[in-house]
Here is the input.
Amino acid sequence: MKLIYEGKAKKIYDDFKTVKGQPTVIMEFKDSLTAFNAQKKGQFSQKGQLNLKFSQKVFEMLSEKGVAHHVVEVLDQNRIRVLKLKMLPVEVVVRNKTAGSLAQRLGFAEGIQLKKPLVEFYLKNDTLQDPLLTENQIETLEIMTFDEIKAAQVLALKINLELLQFFNHVGVDLIDFKIEMGKDESSKLYLADEITPDSCRLWDQKTQEKLDKDVFRRDLGDVGEAYKKIAQKIGIEI
Ligand code: ADP
Ligand code: TMP
Ligand code: ASP
Here is the structure.
């Protein structure tokens, strides 16, 4: 088994296995936690397995609603087998309420309901700190085609609708989230990477308590406890 990539939260190994003729890789969820492009580093025990279980539960729900995702099988507490995809070079962010970089950049308070969900694209480039892209830039600079942009927007909005319902059901507001997508050899588009408290903003509807990575980013308390709380709400025990 060969380590082919180590990122901030996960490692990718290739064991050269195919599933139904499709190449796969192994994705390992680490206990580490970073923010601000890894300028701030942390970790907590069992974070990797908590995020794996969280993402798995959400992906399974999305799969039932017709969303194709990259997970092939769960191998153990920290590792899953996924389709080896050609990743779109962007992070796709969907926002339902103002928060984070949107609120900061435009001088808005956090928590204001948006008229409709906002889909944004950020270039995946750590050196440039993942800059925001316009659709025009993406098409003109040939980062993605027009059809890829439209397909990514449609998939992101469908996922948003399902996630809003899923979290609302357990008394949690989905403020915003980030997803990544990739294509297989036949150019079919899949939801890839993860959906976890690292990649979403989740606020308790009653208390407005933040149950996501902002607890770590902003030093708001015990991030491990926040992750356990949101995991419990969606029925995960660690
Ligand atoms: P980062 O690269 O931002 O530090 P991670 O530590 O989460 O993030 O690393 C996981 C990497 O795996 C990301 O670069 C992501 O784009 C990539 N990835 C996610 N799913 C797949 C997949 N199915 N096939 C290939 N690469 C993937
Ligand atoms: P932002 O407000 O900082 O742009 O973040 C929007 C959403 O994307 C939020 O739910 C956190 C998530 N996110 C990531 O998953 N990875 C990142 O690198 C960043 C900047 C945000
Ligand atoms: N994902 C980025 C990092 O790990 C930024 C963030 O989530 O705040 O540094």
The radius of gyration is 17 Å.
